[in-house]
Specification:
CATH class of the largest domain in chain A: Mainly Alpha
Number of helices of chain A: 10
Radius of gyration of chain A: 21 Å
Distance between the termini of chain A: 68 Å
Low-confidence stretches of chain A: 1-11, 214-223
Largest sheet of chain A: none
Helix content of chain A: over 70%
Shape of chain A: globular
Number of strands of chain A: 0
CATH architecture of the largest domain in chain A: Orthogonal Bundle
Oligomer: homodimer
Structural class of chain A: mainly alpha
CATH superfamily of the largest domain in chain A: Tetracycline Repressor, domain 2
Mean pLDDT of chain A: 89
Strand content of chain A: under 5%
Chain lengths: ~220, ~220
DNA sequence: TGTAATGTTTACCAACCGGTCAAATTATCA
DNA sequence: TGATAATTTGACCGGTTGGTAAACATTACA
């Protein structure tokens, strides 16, 4: 037989699992750093420590590799939002969501950049995931936030833009890492910037979402 | 003479100016959408409406085109931060900075994505700009913010992370536009999302930076 | 108007890139 | 062990890409 390629034989060989693991790890390294078009199969092969035809034995095409990687990573990536709990204390839930997202930016920056690259270039490969599972999950959690606001547990605000703000501020530390480092300077070599960021962001969002008697009317909104 | 190429002759021809303008416009379109490696000279040539060798007559290499584009756009891009005025009302200054950044995300999304692509992939072509002019400008404005905080005009906070938060939340609407649209759904076709974002962000930052008697001590910061 | 400088295009090249093929090597198991 | 299936690799292919050479066209200007 010439084309087992994972799908054909139900039972996966030990070697198959190991090699596919190796390849996806290397693919994550390369795709997250250069984007889909900017990456070459040779690069991935070199990082994975195997020959190009060998990669193509496990994944028929470059696109197949990318898709497998996206599928594998997307679930994990959305976990923090899934944990968002309607029953919990609203402010505490938002705080811990921020903390979890920031931890992911620190511990899984490549995953963050993989999606950032993809979305930035128009999401040509993950449009369905965005309009499907992602939107549904966000809709669900936005409804939770809206309920909290109506119940007076947090300040009234647009839940979608709140989620966008949490995404952008936290993922910024993964996606724009070189810029953050450049601006903060060399002395900020360790992970200290993540702790500073956590302090700042938790305070910003918590104070910003506190229910207020006179909701900053002196800065009333014009067009 | 065969190689005038702008630099050699001091006086620029009318044609030179027009064509270089055309090329950089096309380059912005293509580079911002696909990143440096993902873009081809042929693509840019087609958008610019001229032949590939003709492009290379004005810019010797693909890198030269990219560099010229970056140089041209970076100045404009930093204008909103430059306008940040130490003498003004602190909260008003921050609000109008947010507004200006959001307007830029709406009106110049390609410029935003150009830099996002670049930084995301490790800023291989603009490292010097980040560590030089950008850092100096941010250092200067961070000092202004720190002064305001010390004077009790705004809440005490890390000025660098405040700036990062404003950058990330506003640029998010340009860089991750497809994701924002996907999550908000089709009904949000116009520019309404920018107005909603402005309302949300101005309120978030203004309320979050309000000086407080008891600075949210009940959510005291742990590690 | 003539001519030298400037601008444009066609044809082309070498390197690279995604992917194939067939032969060789290794693992599996009756 | 031997035969069969699974895995790996070197050689190769067609298309693309960044860039060049040189002939051709146009403009500026004395």
């Amino acid at each position: 037989m010439v084309l087992p390629r994972a799908a054909k034989t139900q039972r996966r060989t030990r070697i198959q699992e190991e090699k596919e693991e190796q390849i996806l790890e290397a693919a994550l390294e390369v795709f997250s750093a250069h984007g889909f078009r900017g990456s070459t199969i040779d690069q991935i092969a070199e990082v994975a420590g195997m020959s190009k035809p060998n990669l193509l034995y496990y994944f028929r095409t470059k696109e197949a590799m990318h898709r497998a990687l996206i599928d594998r990573v997307l679930d994990t990536w959305l976990d923090p939002l899934r944990e968002f709990n309607a029953e919990g204390n609203p402010v505490a839930e938002i705080r811990s969501y921020i903390r979890r997202k920031l931890e992911m930016a620190r511990d899984f920056p490549r995953e963050s950049r993989l999606f950032a690259n993809e979305v930035l270039q128009g999401a040509p490969h993950i449009e369905d995931e965005l309009k499907g599972p992602l939107k549904e999950l966000v809709d669900e959690k936005a409804e939770v936030i809206r309920t909290w606001a109506k119940a007076g547990k947090i300040a009234k605000c647009d839940p979608y833009h709140l989620i966008f703000a949490i995404w952008s501020t936290t993922q910024h530390y993964a996606d724009f890492d070189v810029q953050v480092r450049a601006v903060l300077g060399q002395e900020n070599a360790g992970d200290g910037r993540f702790e500073d960021a956590a302090r700042f962001l938790e305070r910003l969002f918590v104070d910003g979402l506190q229910v207020r008697e006179q909701p900053s009317s002196e800065y009333g909104l014009e067009g």
